[in-house]
Design brief:
Blueprint: H1 2-18, H2 23-50, H3 54-78
Length: about 80
Amino acid sequence: MKKVVFAVVGATALGLAACNPSEDAAGDAVAEEAEAQEEILEEAAEGAEAMGDEATAEALEEQAEQVDEAGEVAEEVAEGDM
């Protein structure tokens, strides 16, 4: 799952950068996409926790953190900061 998340966020950043939109707009779009993915994972973690599946909840929370970190890097790339 980690590779998929990094691939999606990275592809989004590169795609937006290649289209040459304003750097801030590209960074904002990448950040919003990462935040949306992070929220989905956090909601899934809450659902798993509510059902008593702590292991799955922890795994989903870890994935949400990874999406957040990858999103921050991708945002910097999209804005030309890296």
